[in-house]
Amino acid sequence: MTVTAGPFSHVGLLYSGDAEYLDGTVPYILEGLKHDEPVAVAVPSRNLALIEAALGESAADVELIDMSEAGRNPGRILPGVLLAFADNRPGPVRIIGEPIWAGRSAVEYPACAQHEALINFAFGDRDLSILCPYDRTRLEADVLADAERTHPTLSGADGDRPSPGYAPDAVVEKYNLPLPEPRSADAFRFDLGTLAAVRRFAQVRAEESGLARERVEDLVLAVAELSANSVLHGSGHGVVRVWREEGHVLCEVVDEGTLSDPLAGRRPALPGQLGGRGLVLVNQVADLVRQYLRPGSTVTRIYFRV
């Protein structure tokens, strides 16, 4: 297997088994090191151990990142992993990023697919190469079809080929869907005068739902950012709902604002930048963030594991 890096390259690596996985990733890493290119490997822990062992002493020259932790929330991967690595290093950069693996939940997957699509718009024409492995024997057929839509180039045992279905915009829109209604949720309507009260509401409901104290603080911080955004950049008011469901405490903020930038919250704030940090912070503290965007309404749902 070979992957050719260009000024900007986003390649989906379709593999089967450990041998194909290593054949597709290790030479890519070693070629980057040979050319003095910074290399990061952000993959789930089992695959990270495989690559580290195969690299031997060369592993010390690679930034190794456990994607099952760093990328637990897919919305955190662009600002916290990919851009965080690339923005701090001049010249060509290589990254292996594996945000989708067998075991990702159905509620997480739409955010994963949108993340893969948005990579194509986040880096423009930068001198950077990203290789994304997909286990073609363990992932569902629709996941592999989405990989074709989100990667302009596909790679596998037979080499590289252009992806015939490449259409990242279509994937972003495909998963911009109404979120299932909760069976039961407590709601609080807020405006500028009740921002402090909405934070207290979220705190009490999260505590009653059994969320750990430190995670309650994170949830309240996220609610504070989202409700402030609703007041400052939306219609001036909104609704927050909190409930528990399948091992998570969920919180949803709904307002009448229109969020037109699909990369909002996925770019790190620039030094000295005024504003623009709220959604980045929400992605940083939550275990999952899902959004439904349409003209005149933004729904942001955040998940915290209990």
UniProtKB/TrEMBL annotation:
Protein keywords: Kinase, Serine/threonine-protein kinase, Transferase
UniProt keyword Kinase, yes or no: yes
UniProt cross-references to PANTHER family, sorted A to Z: ANTI-SIGMA-F FACTOR RSBW (PTHR35526:SF3), ANTI-SIGMA-F FACTOR RSBW-RELATED (PTHR35526)
Protein name: Anti-sigma regulatory factor (Ser/Thr protein kinase)
Record-linked CDD domains: HATPase_RsbW-like
Entry-linked InterPro entries: Anti-sigma-factor_SerPK, HATPase_C_sf, HATPase_dom, MEDS_domain, RsbA-like_anti_sig
Superkingdom of origin: Bacteria
Domain MEDS, chain residue ranges per copy: 10-152
Organism, as annotated: Amycolatopsis roodepoortensis
Pfam families: HATPase_c_2, MEDS
Gene3D superfamilies on file: Histidine kinase-like ATPase, C-terminal domain (3.30.565.10)
Residues covered by the Histidine kinase/HSP90-like ATPase domain: 190-302
